[in-house]
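Anyone? Bumping this.
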Amino acid sequence: MATLQHQEPPAFFIRGPSPLARLVFFSVLSLVLMAVDARLHYLVEVRQGFATLLHPLEVLASSPVRLYRSVSQRFATVEALGHENQQLHEQLMRQAIDLQRLPSLQTENAHMRQLLEIRQILQQPARVAEVLRSGRDPFVQHLIVNIGSQQGVSAGQAVVDGLGVIGQVTRAYPFSSEVTLITDRDLAVPVQVERNGLRAIAFGHGRDRAMDLPYLPVNVDIREGDRLVTSGIDGTYPAGLAVATITRIERNVDSPFARIVCKPVAGTDRHRQVLILTAEPSDAMEETSAHKNKESSHAPHQR
Amino acid sequence: MRPISASQITLTLLAGFMIYLLPWDGVGMLLRPDFVLLALIYWLIRAPHLCNIGTAWLMGMLMDLSGGDLFGQHALAYVLVAFFAVFYQRRATLFNRWQQASFVFMLLVLGQIVLLVLKLFNGASLPGWSYFLPSVVGILLWQLVIYSKIRVTGEQEA
């Protein structure tokens, strides 16, 4: 009997702490981490460090798709290329006509701005970024692009394409950055109706690749097909970039607000290359205010 | 029964993670099953002395870190799934194929529901029923486990 008691139990029965104990321990750990991450924002550095570590793996994972793209580009047929060439020629012709008018319009515009004593629109430097993939979380609308804080990208910068605003950089990792699209629920863009200058704020809808214009009264002067452009009030987006077009307006008698749905102009889900406007929004704001101060100090002398 | 080495488990889990890292898009994104969770469930039932709730938690943290989500979401979901998998592990090895498939399906759906609840607390809007498609695809993939020779009991087909 005595020898039996001292025997080790066979490995089959060794299971360490009970499943319930482990469950409680790891659940509490997860919940604490969640609370710390959501409320205290201590873990930003941890996340960035890990993203750097993970970067080679991500590059490796996206390499098959890149290979496929490059191969399919190489084997594009002559027909397709000819078709594309023709299209581009037509586009060039159309744009050349516009371009001829551009210098005169530019000088006229500059002149009028001077007359109105409005600041010159800042020429924002922009960087081309390639979209690596869309975000993995189906609940948020993210893009991951291939340049990061090492290339001068920082959180808060605006992201645009040839057609209009796409979104905003929300996290900059060393070699990649996360862009939140304007269709995300958490992103708001200050906009202006191009037709009448009415200011509003557009919120992402979260699903359906759409945006909402909430908190506008029922009798607001907005029509279907109106174009929304950035108003430039926030200092993040330069003024005058196309954001969306109004697709639907519902006016209910029982609600004081109109329900306005709009569709982003930019290809939020189509493009492989995007532009990141790398000028610091705060710099732009300071410059403007400095400019204004100077003007106001000059003003009394002129009078 | 062939003994299972820890490196085997690590390799499978890392392979699942690499598949998760592929640039999924569009329909693929909608249908993408949770490969890491599938691999975890397999090892939790097959080798609970090597792959336990702690392993599930670690993999969940890895997912959270790579996805840029709130820390601990996947970790909590995986821990809960792992608990049920381990709790019923001895019975699961005796299940027939339909019982086993439904057991795994319930585990996959449980994982998704936990994630959904956490996201809803965080202010996300309610997704449609298509949200559960990854679990359906996941259980279809699980048929591979059932009909191939890599059975959860580790026994070769008689």
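Late reply, but here is one note on the structure posted above: Residues 82 and 88 of chain A are 10 Å apart (CA to CA).
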